[in-house]
Design brief:
The protein has about 140 residues and is α/β, with parallel strands linked by helices. Helix content is about 40%, strand content about 15%. The protein contains 4 helices and 4 strands. The chain has a 4-stranded parallel beta sheet. Helix 1 links the parallel strand 1 and strand 2.
Length: about 140
């Protein structure tokens, strides 16, 4: 690939997010990190429209390069169904990209660096399958 594909990462822990961000590279670049449902509801809609988010959060570990709209929203395992539904509802008119959630029924290492690595391998595989299937422009 000639350049990294921009994505949004939603997590609950900066420590885990750091590892996930590093593991997603070089194929994917986290442009913005969301650390709560309320931040997701406020910031993801503008990001999906290709706009700079309204708040400049110091906790955002993303690269903050908003020159390209994100191609996917990647959610960590800390978000319950109701949280995801709230964020997706806030984005309903703007979301034309996949939202990826971990399959929590599959085994994963305990929380920590290895947890992030294991999740990223699944995310990369899923994104690759979506790209190959021409489904990166679909809200799934």
């Amino acid at each position: 690939m000639s350049s990294a594909i921009p994505v949004i990462l939603c997590g609950k822990s900066q420590e885990i997010a750091r590892g996930v961000i590093a593991e997603l590279q070089p194929e994917y670049e986290v442009i913005h990190l969301i650390l709560s449902t309320s931040a997701g509801k406020a910031e993801i809609p503008s990001l999906l429209r290709g706009e700079v988010p309204p708040a400049n959060d110091a906790d955002n570990l993303g690269i903050k390069n908003y020159s390209e709209a994100p191609t996917a929203v990647i959610l960590g395992g800390g978000y319950e169904d109701s949280h995801v539904a709230e964020m997706r509802q806030a984005c309903q008119d703007d979301s034309k990209i996949p939202w990826l959630r971990p399959d929590l029924s599959k085994p994963a290492p305990p929380l920590g660096p290895e947890y992030g690595k294991a999740r990223v391998q699944r995310v990369k595989s899923c994104l690759s399958n979506l790209e190959e299937g021409g489904k990166m422009n679909e809200d799934a």
